[in-house]
Design brief:
single chain; mainly alpha; MetI-like fold; 2 domains; 25 helices
Protein backbone atom coordinates (compact mmCIF):
# COMPACT_ATOMS: atom_id res chain seq x y z
CA UNK A 1 0.00 0.00 0.00
CA UNK A 2 2.97 2.27 0.67
CA UNK A 3 4.10 1.87 -2.94
CA UNK A 4 0.63 2.84 -4.12
CA UNK A 5 0.66 5.89 -1.86
CA UNK A 6 4.07 6.79 -3.25
CA UNK A 7 2.80 6.54 -6.82
CA UNK A 8 -0.21 8.76 -6.20
CA UNK A 9 1.93 11.19 -4.22
CA UNK A 10 4.36 11.28 -7.12
CA UNK A 11 1.53 12.23 -9.48
CA UNK A 12 0.11 14.84 -7.12
CA UNK A 13 3.26 16.72 -6.13
CA UNK A 14 4.25 17.86 -9.67
CA UNK A 15 0.68 19.02 -10.32
CA UNK A 16 0.63 20.98 -7.05
CA UNK A 17 4.11 22.36 -7.74
CA UNK A 18 3.08 23.66 -11.16
CA UNK A 19 -0.15 25.07 -9.73
CA UNK A 20 1.70 26.76 -6.87
CA UNK A 21 4.34 28.17 -9.21
CA UNK A 22 1.85 29.60 -11.70
CA UNK A 23 -0.33 31.01 -8.91
CA UNK A 24 2.24 32.12 -6.34
CA UNK A 25 4.47 33.96 -8.82
CA UNK A 26 1.87 36.64 -9.69
CA UNK A 27 0.67 36.81 -6.07
CA UNK A 28 4.27 37.20 -4.93
CA UNK A 29 4.84 39.91 -7.54
CA UNK A 30 1.83 41.88 -6.25
CA UNK A 31 2.92 41.38 -2.63
CA UNK A 32 6.46 42.49 -3.40
CA UNK A 33 5.25 45.58 -5.24
CA UNK A 34 2.93 46.53 -2.36
CA UNK A 35 5.74 46.09 0.20
CA UNK A 36 8.22 48.23 -1.75
CA UNK A 37 6.15 51.27 -0.82
CA UNK A 38 5.00 50.75 2.76
CA UNK A 39 3.74 54.31 3.02
CA UNK A 40 1.43 53.72 0.02
CA UNK A 41 0.21 50.46 1.55
CA UNK A 42 -0.52 52.20 4.86
CA UNK A 43 -2.31 55.06 3.11
CA UNK A 44 -4.43 52.57 1.22
CA UNK A 45 -5.35 50.64 4.37
CA UNK A 46 -6.25 53.79 6.32
CA UNK A 47 -7.92 55.61 3.44
CA UNK A 48 -11.64 56.10 4.00
CA UNK A 49 -12.25 55.51 0.29
CA UNK A 50 -10.74 52.02 0.58
CA UNK A 51 -13.25 51.12 3.28
CA UNK A 52 -16.05 52.60 1.20
CA UNK A 53 -14.94 50.40 -1.71
CA UNK A 54 -14.78 47.37 0.58
CA UNK A 55 -18.19 48.11 2.06
CA UNK A 56 -19.84 48.37 -1.35
CA UNK A 57 -18.03 45.27 -2.63
CA UNK A 58 -19.23 43.18 0.31
CA UNK A 59 -22.73 44.65 0.12
CA UNK A 60 -23.28 44.00 -3.60
CA UNK A 61 -21.90 40.46 -3.29
CA UNK A 62 -24.14 39.74 -0.29
CA UNK A 63 -27.27 41.13 -1.94
CA UNK A 64 -26.52 39.24 -5.16
CA UNK A 65 -26.03 35.96 -3.31
CA UNK A 66 -29.11 36.44 -1.13
CA UNK A 67 -31.36 37.32 -4.08
CA UNK A 68 -30.06 34.33 -6.06
CA UNK A 69 -30.77 31.93 -3.19
CA UNK A 70 -34.22 33.35 -2.37
CA UNK A 71 -35.36 33.31 -6.00
CA UNK A 72 -33.97 29.82 -6.61
CA UNK A 73 -35.57 28.25 -3.53
CA UNK A 74 -39.19 27.84 -4.76
CA UNK A 75 -37.98 26.46 -8.09
CA UNK A 76 -35.63 24.01 -6.34
CA UNK A 77 -38.34 22.90 -3.89
CA UNK A 78 -40.67 22.05 -6.79
CA UNK A 79 -38.09 20.55 -9.15
CA UNK A 80 -36.78 18.26 -6.40
CA UNK A 81 -40.24 16.84 -5.71
CA UNK A 82 -42.03 16.59 -9.06
CA UNK A 83 -41.28 15.02 -12.43
CA UNK A 84 -42.50 16.80 -15.56
CA UNK A 85 -41.61 17.24 -19.18
CA UNK A 86 -38.72 19.65 -19.58
CA UNK A 87 -37.39 19.26 -16.03
CA UNK A 88 -34.16 17.63 -17.13
CA UNK A 89 -33.65 20.19 -19.89
CA UNK A 90 -34.01 23.04 -17.38
CA UNK A 91 -31.46 21.53 -14.99
CA UNK A 92 -29.06 20.93 -17.89
CA UNK A 93 -29.54 24.56 -18.89
CA UNK A 94 -28.60 25.55 -15.35
CA UNK A 95 -25.34 23.62 -15.60
CA UNK A 96 -24.62 25.24 -18.97
CA UNK A 97 -25.37 28.71 -17.58
CA UNK A 98 -22.65 28.17 -14.99
CA UNK A 99 -20.07 28.76 -17.72
CA UNK A 100 -21.93 31.66 -19.38
CA UNK A 101 -19.37 34.44 -20.01
CA UNK A 102 -20.09 37.68 -18.17
CA UNK A 103 -19.50 39.63 -21.39
CA UNK A 104 -22.58 37.95 -22.92
CA UNK A 105 -24.69 39.04 -19.96
CA UNK A 106 -23.43 42.60 -20.37
CA UNK A 107 -24.19 42.63 -24.10
CA UNK A 108 -27.57 40.93 -23.66
CA UNK A 109 -28.64 43.36 -20.94
CA UNK A 110 -27.60 46.41 -22.97
CA UNK A 111 -29.50 45.23 -26.06
CA UNK A 112 -32.54 43.95 -24.19
CA UNK A 113 -32.92 46.29 -21.21
CA UNK A 114 -31.13 49.43 -22.39
CA UNK A 115 -32.96 52.77 -22.48
CA UNK A 116 -33.50 52.20 -26.20
CA UNK A 117 -33.39 48.42 -25.95
CA UNK A 118 -35.82 45.87 -27.27
CA UNK A 119 -37.79 45.64 -24.01
CA UNK A 120 -38.39 49.40 -23.81
CA UNK A 121 -39.29 49.55 -27.49
CA UNK A 122 -41.86 46.80 -26.92
CA UNK A 123 -43.27 48.63 -23.89
CA UNK A 124 -43.47 51.85 -25.87
CA UNK A 125 -45.33 50.13 -28.69
CA UNK A 126 -47.82 48.49 -26.32
CA UNK A 127 -48.41 51.56 -24.13
CA UNK A 128 -48.13 54.16 -26.89
CA UNK A 129 -44.97 55.67 -25.36
CA UNK A 130 -46.40 55.88 -21.83
CA UNK A 131 -44.29 53.13 -20.24
CA UNK A 132 -40.54 52.62 -20.00
CA UNK A 133 -38.08 51.13 -17.52
CA UNK A 134 -34.65 52.43 -16.53
CA UNK A 135 -32.48 49.44 -15.70
CA UNK A 136 -28.93 50.08 -16.87
CA UNK A 137 -26.25 52.19 -15.20
CA UNK A 138 -27.60 51.61 -11.72
CA UNK A 139 -27.15 49.41 -8.67
CA UNK A 140 -30.16 47.32 -9.65
CA UNK A 141 -28.53 46.55 -13.01
CA UNK A 142 -25.49 45.10 -11.21
CA UNK A 143 -27.64 42.96 -8.92
CA UNK A 144 -29.91 41.82 -11.75
CA UNK A 145 -26.94 40.78 -13.88
CA UNK A 146 -25.33 38.91 -10.96
CA UNK A 147 -28.60 37.12 -10.21
CA UNK A 148 -28.94 36.25 -13.89
CA UNK A 149 -25.51 34.60 -13.78
CA UNK A 150 -25.87 32.91 -10.39
CA UNK A 151 -29.54 31.89 -10.15
CA UNK A 152 -28.88 28.73 -12.22
CA UNK A 153 -26.00 27.81 -9.89
CA UNK A 154 -28.18 28.19 -6.81
CA UNK A 155 -31.02 26.28 -8.46
CA UNK A 156 -28.76 23.38 -9.44
CA UNK A 157 -27.13 23.10 -6.00
CA UNK A 158 -30.39 23.33 -4.06
CA UNK A 159 -32.27 20.95 -6.36
CA UNK A 160 -29.55 18.32 -6.08
CA UNK A 161 -29.44 18.65 -2.29
CA UNK A 162 -33.21 18.49 -1.86
CA UNK A 163 -33.46 15.52 -4.25
CA UNK A 164 -31.12 13.50 -2.04
CA UNK A 165 -33.09 14.05 1.17
CA UNK A 166 -35.30 11.25 2.49
CA UNK A 167 -38.98 12.14 2.51
CA UNK A 168 -39.97 10.29 5.71
CA UNK A 169 -40.20 13.35 7.96
CA UNK A 170 -41.86 15.46 5.26
CA UNK A 171 -44.54 12.81 4.69
CA UNK A 172 -45.13 12.54 8.44
CA UNK A 173 -45.54 16.32 8.67
CA UNK A 174 -48.15 16.32 5.90
CA UNK A 175 -50.02 13.40 7.50
CA UNK A 176 -50.25 15.44 10.68
CA UNK A 177 -52.04 18.18 8.75
CA UNK A 178 -49.20 20.60 7.97
CA UNK A 179 -49.38 22.41 4.64
CA UNK A 180 -46.67 22.01 2.00
CA UNK A 181 -45.34 25.48 2.80
CA UNK A 182 -45.22 24.86 6.57
CA UNK A 183 -43.58 21.46 5.98
CA UNK A 184 -40.92 23.05 3.79
CA UNK A 185 -40.15 25.83 6.29
CA UNK A 186 -40.24 23.69 9.45
CA UNK A 187 -38.88 20.36 8.19
CA UNK A 188 -37.14 20.60 4.81
CA UNK A 189 -35.32 23.92 5.05
CA UNK A 190 -33.48 23.18 8.33
CA UNK A 191 -32.17 19.92 6.82
CA UNK A 192 -30.84 21.69 3.73
CA UNK A 193 -29.51 24.74 5.55
CA UNK A 194 -25.90 23.63 5.04
CA UNK A 195 -26.36 23.63 1.28
CA UNK A 196 -28.00 27.06 1.44
CA UNK A 197 -24.98 28.48 3.27
CA UNK A 198 -22.62 26.71 0.87
CA UNK A 199 -24.44 28.13 -2.16
CA UNK A 200 -24.48 31.60 -0.60
CA UNK A 201 -20.73 31.43 0.07
CA UNK A 202 -19.97 30.23 -3.45
CA UNK A 203 -22.02 32.96 -5.13
CA UNK A 204 -20.56 35.57 -2.77
CA UNK A 205 -17.06 34.47 -3.82
CA UNK A 206 -18.06 34.82 -7.48
CA UNK A 207 -19.55 38.30 -7.02
CA UNK A 208 -16.95 39.78 -4.66
CA UNK A 209 -14.31 40.33 -7.41
CA UNK A 210 -16.89 41.45 -9.99
CA UNK A 211 -15.35 43.77 -12.56
CA UNK A 212 -16.86 43.68 -16.03
CA UNK A 213 -20.51 43.87 -14.94
CA UNK A 214 -19.76 46.64 -12.46
CA UNK A 215 -17.74 48.69 -14.95
CA UNK A 216 -20.21 48.32 -17.83
CA UNK A 217 -23.67 48.05 -16.28
CA UNK A 218 -22.99 50.15 -13.19
CA UNK A 219 -21.65 53.00 -15.26
CA UNK A 220 -20.74 55.06 -12.20
CA UNK A 221 -17.54 55.19 -10.05
CA UNK A 222 -19.77 55.14 -6.97
CA UNK A 223 -20.60 51.53 -7.90
CA UNK A 224 -16.98 50.42 -8.26
CA UNK A 225 -15.86 47.24 -6.54
CA UNK A 226 -12.27 46.70 -5.40
CA UNK A 227 -11.42 44.91 -8.68
CA UNK A 228 -12.84 47.76 -10.75
CA UNK A 229 -10.79 50.28 -8.76
CA UNK A 230 -7.65 48.16 -9.24
CA UNK A 231 -8.18 48.26 -13.00
CA UNK A 232 -8.79 52.03 -12.91
CA UNK A 233 -5.68 52.77 -10.84
CA UNK A 234 -3.52 50.57 -13.08
CA UNK A 235 -4.59 51.69 -16.54
CA UNK A 236 -6.19 55.11 -16.01
CA UNK A 237 -4.45 56.64 -12.99
CA UNK A 238 -1.12 54.91 -13.71
CA UNK A 239 -0.73 54.11 -10.02
CA UNK A 240 0.61 50.52 -9.88
CA UNK A 241 1.65 50.83 -6.23
CA UNK A 242 -1.90 51.78 -5.24
CA UNK A 243 -3.26 48.91 -7.36
CA UNK A 244 -0.93 46.42 -5.70
CA UNK A 245 -1.96 47.57 -2.23
CA UNK A 246 -5.65 47.17 -3.06
CA UNK A 247 -5.00 43.79 -4.70
CA UNK A 248 -3.32 42.46 -1.54
CA UNK A 249 -6.18 43.70 0.64
CA UNK A 250 -8.66 41.97 -1.68
CA UNK A 251 -6.62 38.75 -1.70
CA UNK A 252 -6.36 38.70 2.11
CA UNK A 253 -10.12 39.08 2.47
CA UNK A 254 -10.96 36.46 -0.17
CA UNK A 255 -8.43 33.97 1.21
CA UNK A 256 -9.92 34.47 4.67
CA UNK A 257 -13.40 33.80 3.29
CA UNK A 258 -12.18 30.60 1.64
CA UNK A 259 -10.73 29.41 4.94
CA UNK A 260 -13.82 30.37 6.95
CA UNK A 261 -16.27 28.78 4.52
CA UNK A 262 -14.06 25.75 3.99
CA UNK A 263 -14.71 25.96 0.25
CA UNK A 264 -13.01 23.06 -1.45
CA UNK A 265 -12.27 21.13 1.78
CA UNK A 266 -15.35 18.96 1.84
CA UNK A 267 -17.08 17.67 -1.23
CA UNK A 268 -20.70 16.67 -0.88
CA UNK A 269 -21.23 12.97 -1.47
CA UNK A 270 -23.98 12.07 -3.87
CA UNK A 271 -26.66 9.99 -2.22
CA UNK A 272 -27.58 6.65 -3.69
CA UNK A 273 -31.09 6.97 -2.29
CA UNK A 274 -32.50 9.85 -4.28
CA UNK A 275 -36.16 10.54 -3.60
CA UNK A 276 -38.72 9.32 -6.10
CA UNK A 277 -40.21 12.15 -8.11
CA UNK A 278 -43.99 12.55 -8.25
CA UNK A 279 -45.59 12.99 -11.68
CA UNK A 280 -47.36 16.35 -11.98
CA UNK A 281 -51.12 16.52 -12.22
CA UNK A 282 -53.82 19.04 -11.43
CA UNK A 283 -52.51 22.04 -9.53
CA UNK A 284 -48.94 20.77 -9.58
CA UNK A 285 -49.07 20.62 -13.38
CA UNK A 286 -50.17 24.24 -13.52
CA UNK A 287 -47.38 25.15 -11.09
CA UNK A 288 -44.84 23.34 -13.28
CA UNK A 289 -45.97 25.34 -16.32
CA UNK A 290 -45.90 28.65 -14.43
CA UNK A 291 -42.44 28.06 -12.96
CA UNK A 292 -41.02 26.93 -16.30
CA UNK A 293 -42.43 29.97 -18.08
CA UNK A 294 -41.09 32.33 -15.40
CA UNK A 295 -37.63 30.81 -15.64
CA UNK A 296 -37.61 31.03 -19.43
CA UNK A 297 -38.86 34.64 -19.35
CA UNK A 298 -36.00 35.54 -17.03
CA UNK A 299 -33.18 33.63 -18.76
CA UNK A 300 -34.08 33.75 -22.45
CA UNK A 301 -34.59 37.44 -23.41
CA UNK A 302 -30.94 38.63 -23.14
CA UNK A 303 -29.63 35.67 -25.18
CA UNK A 304 -32.42 35.90 -27.76
CA UNK A 305 -31.78 39.65 -28.01
CA UNK A 306 -28.17 38.95 -28.93
CA UNK A 307 -29.27 36.49 -31.62
CA UNK A 308 -31.81 38.97 -33.00
CA UNK A 309 -29.39 41.90 -32.99
CA UNK A 310 -26.76 39.94 -34.91
CA UNK A 311 -29.09 39.86 -37.94
CA UNK A 312 -31.03 43.12 -37.56
CA UNK A 313 -30.05 46.76 -37.26
CA UNK A 314 -31.38 49.00 -34.51
CA UNK A 315 -34.22 50.00 -36.86
CA UNK A 316 -35.17 46.36 -37.51
CA UNK A 317 -33.62 46.05 -40.99
CA UNK A 318 -32.30 42.58 -41.78
CA UNK A 319 -28.61 42.51 -42.73
CA UNK A 320 -25.69 40.07 -42.81
CA UNK A 321 -23.03 42.79 -42.67
CA UNK A 322 -21.85 41.86 -39.17
CA UNK A 323 -21.34 38.28 -40.27
CA UNK A 324 -19.47 39.20 -43.44
CA UNK A 325 -17.22 41.49 -41.38
CA UNK A 326 -16.11 38.56 -39.23
CA UNK A 327 -14.27 36.98 -42.16
CA UNK A 328 -13.08 40.31 -43.58
CA UNK A 329 -9.35 40.98 -43.68
CA UNK A 330 -8.07 43.94 -41.69
CA UNK A 331 -6.58 46.86 -43.62
CA UNK A 332 -5.34 48.68 -40.53
CA UNK A 333 -3.31 45.92 -38.88
CA UNK A 334 -5.88 45.52 -36.13
CA UNK A 335 -6.84 41.97 -35.24
CA UNK A 336 -9.80 40.78 -37.24
CA UNK A 337 -12.83 39.08 -35.77
CA UNK A 338 -11.66 35.76 -37.21
CA UNK A 339 -8.26 36.19 -35.55
CA UNK A 340 -10.00 36.85 -32.23
CA UNK A 341 -12.15 33.71 -32.57
CA UNK A 342 -9.12 31.56 -33.38
CA UNK A 343 -7.19 33.07 -30.47
CA UNK A 344 -10.06 32.27 -28.11
CA UNK A 345 -10.33 28.67 -29.29
CA UNK A 346 -6.58 28.09 -29.08
CA UNK A 347 -6.10 29.65 -25.65
CA UNK A 348 -9.23 27.99 -24.21
CA UNK A 349 -8.25 24.56 -25.55
CA UNK A 350 -4.72 24.79 -24.15
CA UNK A 351 -5.83 26.19 -20.79
CA UNK A 352 -8.57 23.55 -20.45
CA UNK A 353 -6.16 20.73 -21.35
CA UNK A 354 -3.51 21.85 -18.86
CA UNK A 355 -6.07 22.46 -16.11
CA UNK A 356 -7.73 19.07 -16.68
CA UNK A 357 -4.40 17.22 -16.57
CA UNK A 358 -3.36 18.98 -13.36
CA UNK A 359 -6.82 18.52 -11.83
CA UNK A 360 -6.85 14.79 -12.65
CA UNK A 361 -3.64 14.19 -10.69
CA UNK A 362 -4.82 16.31 -7.76
CA UNK A 363 -8.28 14.70 -7.64
CA UNK A 364 -7.12 11.07 -7.72
CA UNK A 365 -4.34 11.89 -5.24
CA UNK A 366 -6.72 13.62 -2.83
CA UNK A 367 -9.02 10.58 -2.75
CA UNK A 368 -6.42 7.80 -2.69
CA UNK A 369 -4.17 9.56 -0.16
CA UNK A 370 -7.21 10.83 1.80
CA UNK A 371 -5.81 14.36 1.95
CA UNK A 372 -8.85 16.63 1.70
CA UNK A 373 -6.72 19.77 1.98
CA UNK A 374 -5.42 19.21 -1.56
CA UNK A 375 -8.68 20.35 -3.12
CA UNK A 376 -8.72 23.34 -0.81
CA UNK A 377 -5.21 24.36 -1.88
CA UNK A 378 -6.21 24.25 -5.53
CA UNK A 379 -9.20 26.49 -4.77
CA UNK A 380 -6.93 29.31 -3.56
CA UNK A 381 -6.76 30.93 -7.04
CA UNK A 382 -10.41 31.87 -6.45
CA UNK A 383 -9.12 34.26 -3.79
CA UNK A 384 -7.36 36.30 -6.47
CA UNK A 385 -9.65 38.18 -8.81
CA UNK A 386 -8.72 37.88 -12.46
CA UNK A 387 -7.87 41.60 -12.66
CA UNK A 388 -5.53 41.26 -9.65
CA UNK A 389 -4.09 38.10 -11.16
CA UNK A 390 -3.48 39.93 -14.42
CA UNK A 391 -1.80 42.73 -12.45
CA UNK A 392 0.57 40.19 -10.89
CA UNK A 393 1.49 38.73 -14.27
CA UNK A 394 1.95 42.29 -15.57
CA UNK A 395 4.46 43.01 -12.79
CA UNK A 396 6.29 39.79 -13.65
CA UNK A 397 6.41 40.66 -17.34
CA UNK A 398 7.74 44.12 -16.50
CA UNK A 399 10.46 42.86 -14.13
CA UNK A 400 11.55 40.13 -16.57
CA UNK A 401 11.18 42.51 -19.54
CA UNK A 402 8.80 40.16 -21.34
CA UNK A 403 7.36 42.42 -24.01
CA UNK A 404 7.11 40.15 -27.04
CA UNK A 405 3.88 38.91 -28.56
CA UNK A 406 4.81 35.32 -27.64
CA UNK A 407 5.30 36.35 -23.99
CA UNK A 408 1.88 38.03 -23.96
CA UNK A 409 0.22 34.85 -25.25
CA UNK A 410 2.03 32.72 -22.67
CA UNK A 411 1.03 35.03 -19.82
CA UNK A 412 -2.59 35.07 -20.95
CA UNK A 413 -2.57 31.26 -21.19
CA UNK A 414 -1.12 30.92 -17.68
CA UNK A 415 -3.69 33.34 -16.27
CA UNK A 416 -6.55 31.44 -17.92
CA UNK A 417 -5.20 28.14 -16.55
CA UNK A 418 -5.10 29.49 -13.00
CA UNK A 419 -8.63 30.90 -13.31
CA UNK A 420 -10.24 27.63 -14.53
CA UNK A 421 -8.22 25.15 -12.45
CA UNK A 422 -10.39 25.23 -9.27
CA UNK A 423 -13.49 24.35 -11.29
CA UNK A 424 -11.73 21.49 -13.06
CA UNK A 425 -10.65 20.06 -9.70
CA UNK A 426 -14.16 20.25 -8.23
CA UNK A 427 -15.51 18.49 -11.31
CA UNK A 428 -13.02 15.61 -11.07
CA UNK A 429 -13.02 14.96 -7.31
CA UNK A 430 -16.53 13.38 -7.31
CA UNK A 431 -15.41 11.21 -10.23
CA UNK A 432 -12.33 10.03 -8.35
CA UNK A 433 -14.46 9.32 -5.27
CA UNK A 434 -16.98 7.34 -7.37
CA UNK A 435 -14.30 4.79 -8.32
CA UNK A 436 -14.80 1.85 -5.90
CA UNK A 437 -11.79 1.44 -3.63
CA UNK A 438 -12.06 -2.33 -3.97
CA UNK A 439 -11.14 -2.23 -7.68
CA UNK A 440 -7.48 -1.22 -7.19
CA UNK A 441 -7.19 -3.72 -4.32
CA UNK A 442 -8.60 -6.55 -6.46
CA UNK A 443 -6.32 -5.62 -9.37
CA UNK A 444 -3.36 -5.55 -7.00
CA UNK A 445 -4.07 -9.10 -5.81
CA UNK A 446 -4.06 -10.20 -9.44
CA UNK A 447 -0.53 -8.89 -9.88
CA UNK A 448 -1.18 -5.48 -11.37
CA UNK A 449 1.17 -2.62 -10.57
CA UNK A 450 -0.13 0.70 -9.29
CA UNK A 451 0.83 2.37 -12.58
CA UNK A 452 -1.11 -0.26 -14.58
CA UNK A 453 -4.10 0.00 -12.26
CA UNK A 454 -4.24 3.74 -12.75
CA UNK A 455 -3.75 3.55 -16.52
CA UNK A 456 -6.14 0.66 -17.24
CA UNK A 457 -8.81 1.03 -14.55
CA UNK A 458 -8.91 4.38 -12.76
CA UNK A 459 -8.06 6.66 -15.67
CA UNK A 460 -10.76 5.19 -18.01
CA UNK A 461 -13.36 5.37 -15.23
CA UNK A 462 -12.39 9.01 -14.72
CA UNK A 463 -12.82 9.67 -18.45
CA UNK A 464 -16.42 11.00 -18.41
CA UNK A 465 -15.54 13.41 -15.61
CA UNK A 466 -12.43 14.52 -17.48
CA UNK A 467 -14.56 15.35 -20.52
CA UNK A 468 -16.90 17.39 -18.38
CA UNK A 469 -14.02 19.13 -16.60
CA UNK A 470 -12.48 20.00 -19.96
CA UNK A 471 -15.83 21.31 -21.23
CA UNK A 472 -16.36 23.59 -18.23
CA UNK A 473 -12.76 24.78 -18.23
CA UNK A 474 -12.94 25.46 -21.98
CA UNK A 475 -16.19 27.43 -21.66
CA UNK A 476 -14.87 29.46 -18.70
CA UNK A 477 -11.61 30.26 -20.49
CA UNK A 478 -13.51 31.07 -23.67
CA UNK A 479 -15.41 33.83 -21.88
CA UNK A 480 -12.58 35.17 -19.70
CA UNK A 481 -11.97 38.84 -20.38
CA UNK A 482 -10.56 40.50 -17.26
CA UNK A 483 -7.09 38.95 -17.21
CA UNK A 484 -6.84 39.11 -21.00
CA UNK A 485 -7.57 42.84 -20.97
CA UNK A 486 -4.91 43.33 -18.31
CA UNK A 487 -2.22 41.20 -19.95
CA UNK A 488 -2.93 41.39 -23.66
CA UNK A 489 -1.98 45.09 -23.94
CA UNK A 490 -3.52 45.13 -27.41
CA UNK A 491 -1.31 42.30 -28.63
CA UNK A 492 -3.66 39.46 -27.67
CA UNK A 493 -7.24 39.96 -28.78
CA UNK A 494 -9.74 37.25 -27.91
CA UNK A 495 -13.43 37.16 -28.79
CA UNK A 496 -14.65 38.51 -25.40
CA UNK A 497 -12.09 41.34 -25.53
CA UNK A 498 -13.19 42.29 -29.05
CA UNK A 499 -16.85 42.16 -27.96
CA UNK A 500 -15.99 44.48 -25.06
CA UNK A 501 -14.31 46.93 -27.45
CA UNK A 502 -17.25 46.81 -29.87
CA UNK A 503 -19.69 47.51 -27.02
CA UNK A 504 -17.66 50.58 -26.08
CA UNK A 505 -17.85 51.65 -29.73
CA UNK A 506 -21.66 51.10 -29.70
CA UNK A 507 -21.27 48.52 -32.47
CA UNK A 508 -23.84 46.18 -30.97
CA UNK A 509 -24.50 44.27 -34.17
CA UNK A 510 -20.86 43.33 -34.64
CA UNK A 511 -20.60 42.42 -30.96
CA UNK A 512 -23.75 40.29 -31.21
CA UNK A 513 -22.46 38.30 -34.19
CA UNK A 514 -19.28 37.47 -32.29
CA UNK A 515 -21.32 36.67 -29.18
CA UNK A 516 -23.42 34.15 -31.14
CA UNK A 517 -20.21 32.39 -32.20
CA UNK A 518 -19.07 32.38 -28.57
CA UNK A 519 -22.39 30.85 -27.46
CA UNK A 520 -22.25 28.17 -30.17
CA UNK A 521 -18.68 27.21 -29.25
CA UNK A 522 -19.44 27.05 -25.51
CA UNK A 523 -22.64 25.03 -25.98
CA UNK A 524 -20.98 22.62 -28.43
CA UNK A 525 -18.15 21.82 -26.04
CA UNK A 526 -20.57 21.65 -23.12
CA UNK A 527 -22.79 19.19 -25.04
CA UNK A 528 -19.75 16.97 -25.60
CA UNK A 529 -18.89 17.18 -21.92
CA UNK A 530 -22.48 16.31 -20.97
CA UNK A 531 -21.84 12.77 -22.21
CA UNK A 532 -20.00 12.37 -18.92
CA UNK A 533 -21.54 11.32 -15.66
CA UNK A 534 -24.52 13.53 -14.82
CA UNK A 535 -23.31 13.79 -11.24
CA UNK A 536 -19.86 15.01 -12.17
CA UNK A 537 -20.61 18.48 -10.92
CA UNK A 538 -22.73 19.32 -7.97
Amino acid sequence: MKKADGYYLGKTIPALAVTALVFLLPVGAVLLRSLTDISQLWRTITDRYTWKLLGFTVMQASVSALCSIVLAMPFAAFFSRYRFRGRRAILTMCDAAFALPAILVVLGFVICYGNNGLFNRLLAAVSKDRWSVQVLYSFKAIILAHVYLNLPIALSLLTNSLSEMPTTEENASRLLGASDFRTFVKVTLPKVWGTVLSAFSLIFLFCFPSFLIVMTLGGNPSFYTIEAEIYKRTYTDMNPAGSASLAMISFAIMAGLLVLTGYGKEERRASRNRRSLIPVKGKSKVTAIVLTVLLILFMAPPILSILYRSFFTRDGVFTLKAWSDIAARSRTGVATSLNAVLNSIGIAACAAFIATELASSVAIGAIRLKIKALTFLTSLPMAMGSVSLGLGFLFLASSLQLRSIAASYILVLLAHTVVVLPFAVRTLVPGARAIPACLPVAAKTLGGTTREIFRRIESPLLGPYRRRAFAFAFALSLGEVNATLALGEGRVTTTPVLIYKLINQYNYQGASALAVILIILALTVFAIGEKGDSNAIS
